[in-house]
Amino acid sequence: MAEKNDIFKKVISHAKEYGFVFPSSEIYDGLNAVYDYGQNGVLLKNNIRDYWWKSMIQLNKNIVGIDAAIFMHPKTWKASGHIDAFNDPLIDNKDSKKRYRADVLVEDYIKKIEQKIQKEIDKASKRFGKDFNKEQFTSTNSKIINYKNKASSITNRLDISLKEDDLSDLKSLIEELEIACPESGSRNWTDVKQFNLMFGTKLGASSESSIDLFLRPETAQGIFVNFLNIQKTGRMKLPFGIAQTGKAFRNEIVARQFIFRMREFEQMEMQYFVTPGTQKEWYDYWKKTRLKWHYSLGIAKENYRFHDHEKLAHYADLATDIEFKFPFGFKELEGIHSRTDFDLLNHEKLSSKKLQYFDTESNQRHIPYVIETSIGLDRMFLAVFSSAFKEELLEDETKRIVLKLPNILAPIKIAVLPLLKKDGLPELANKILDELKWDFMVSYDEKDAVGRRYRRQDAIGTPYCITVDHQSVKDYTVTIRDRDSMQQERISIRGVTKIMHEKLDQKKWFNKI
Predict the structure, then answer these.
(1) I need a labelling partner for 179 at 20 to 30 A (CA). Which of 114, 144, 254, 352 fits?
(2) What is each CA distance from 242 to 65, 98, 248, 395, in whole angstroms?
(3) Do residues 55 and 510 lie in contact, with contact meaning Cβ atoms separated by under 8 Å?
(4) In whole angstroms, what is the distance from residue 336 CA to residue 288 CA?
(5) Which residues contact residue 214 at a Cβ distance below 8 angstroms, ignoring those fewer than 6 apart?
(6) DSSP 281-309
(7) Distance CA 481, CA 488 (A)
(8) pLDDT of residue 148
(9) Three-state SS string across 353-370, please?
């Protein structure tokens, strides 16, 4: 665990040192769980968003995009259930004065039991080697059986407490398990209370005429209230999807783990409208499709897993998470939910406007069911960034830090480096840059020894460096250095643009989806 924490600290430090992510308003000591994206971070973030957008909309003939407003009529959040049900059960420690989500404290306790189970499995695997039968061992080992029964019992009780809103039993469970404050070790807890996560604000020129609004806690509702507008103007036929990216806001009390959980964050969501009765088929389809999208980026497959929900949200009949192995463990990266007709039905009731689809084949009207795919852009940024961060010991015993980002997502695709700041090398280098900049994000660097410049480009994830030297002036050739292998090849300047297009071709990435 200590090693994982060290890696995560290095990731956070690297993100700041190389212009990816900064604490917001840092000169005023910042705001908790609010971050700014720097000059390299905004490029990486834009590239992730663009990769999602193109694969979701450009490559699907029946999915369109919108950009709904952050401000929405307050009845929107009544219909969606956010006003009544968007709460977290919170508990304070009287000694440390720290506030926690009560359910998360219990879930963390369960995870510790699961870690003990895994530890027993690892020990047995090492002891028995090739003869180890994991399934048989976990089903017969008394220690593991006891651990599983305990975890299952706690999970069931937690689910019942949350479902029935039994906050006193939730506190009793924390006390019975002797769960201590992670910071102080104290078990001196307050009662559990519900806390609504929406940010309130006002709309209007004066206090007398203003109305109470909320900053949207999710982007999905902007899609639902525009369902008929899109369906009619786009002449869309079921099944079809509506996608959007945008900011959402949640007043997270337990905001932690860098940009993993923030109060202001960005979502990439797609709502897929289907005929009632076909939702299971489309739910399975989007589970497979979304996992293929993640795999297409070349990040090791063992970093991903599905976690099917046993306890479903009030709007869902099926739900799963694609979890990613962050430096601090497996956590939710993307949610895939079958939302039934909950949203459209509730908006129809509260607005008194028909939000129905007319099926010309059956000559009937019905409210479509919805399959949702929802991914946090900031979490995807952290997943990509943390998995790309590598510390490598080279053959000459020196160390380099490199971001092995998927080339399609790299902030800077090419760096052009004149070997010296004289002898016509900068002029030729700038000529190459001027040719490439129309198609690629290119940087120019002429300061320090070329080896140090390579290291700087490695640290921000630049896939290719083009070096202009004295031979370049003589025979019009340059060297291209590959970030991952560090191998160099010499090519004609006339062929640079063509070769870069071949190496950085977007189509080969999208073809994996």
Answers:
(1) 144
(2) 6, 41, 17, 51
(3) yes
(4) 10
(5) 72, 74, 77, 82, 198, 199, 200, 201
(6) HHHHHHHHHHHHHHHTTT--GGGEEEEE-
(7) 4
(8) 92
(9) CCCCEEECCCCEEECCEE
d(CA 282, CA 457): 43
Q: How much is the pLDDT for 467?
A: 95
Query: Do residues 45 and 37 make contact, with C-beta atoms less than 8 angstroms apart?
Result: yes
Quote the DSSP letter at residue 215. B
* pLDDT computed for residue 477 by the predictor: 94
Tell me if residue 22 falls in helix, strand or coil: strand
- Contact of 428 with 418, CB cutoff 8 Å: yes
pLDDT of amino acid 4: 62
Q: Which residues contact 57 (CB under 8 A, 6 or more apart)?
A: 63, 64, 65, 243
Residue 254: its pLDDT value, please?
65
- Region 321-342 average pLDDT: 94
Q: How far is CA 293 from CA 285, 289, 413, 512, in A?
A: 12, 6, 21, 8
The torsion angles phi and psi of 354, rounded to 5 degrees, stand at -70, 120
Cα 309 to Cα 321, 335, 503: the distances in Å are 8, 10, 41
On whether the CB atoms of residues 306 and 312 are closer than 8 A, the answer is no
Cα 195 from chain centroid?
A: 25
What mean pLDDT do residues 40-58 have? 97
Round the CA-based radius of gyration of the chain to a whole number and report it. 27
Query: Does residue 426 have a cis peptide bond before it, meaning omega lies within 30 degrees of 0?
Result: no
- Supply the DSSP string of 234-295, one letter for each residue: TT--SSEEEEEEEEEE---SS--TGGGS-SEEEEEEEEEEE-TT-HHHHHHHHHHHHHHHHH
Distance CA 461, CA 482 (A): 11
Region class of 6: left (phi > 0), else alpha (psi between -120 and 50), else beta? alpha
Query: What are the backbone angles phi and psi of residue 202, rounded to the nearest 5°?
Result: -120, 145
70 in Cβ contact with 244 (< 8 Å): no
pTM, to two decimals: 0.85
Is 242 exposed, middle or buried, given 0-12, 13-18 or 19+ CB atoms closer than 10 A?
buried
Segment (H or E) for 482:
strand 477-482
Q: Crossing angle for the helix pair 496-503 and 425-436, nearest 10 degrees?
A: 50
pLDDT of the residue at 128 = 85
Comparing 163 with 473, the larger pLDDT belongs to 473
Smallest Cα–Cα separation from 378: which of 19, 49, 18, 16?
Answer: 49
Report yes or no: 113 and 179 within 8 Å, Cβ to Cβ.
Answer: no
Provide the edge-to-edge strand list for the sheet that holds 477-482: 442-444, 414-418, 464-468, 477-482, 488-492
Spatial separation of the C-alpha atoms in residues 268 and 243, rounded to whole Å: 8
Task: Encode burial over 99-110: b for 16+ CB neighbours within 10 A, e otherwise.
Answer: ebbbbebbeebb
Buried b (16+ CB within 10 A) or exposed e, 140-171: ebeebeebbeebeebbebbeebbeeebbebbb
| pLDDT value at 1 more than 60 | no
User: What is the CATH superfamily name and number for domain 412-510?
Assistant: Anticodon-binding domain (3.40.50.800)
> So where are the chain's domains?
90-196, 412-510
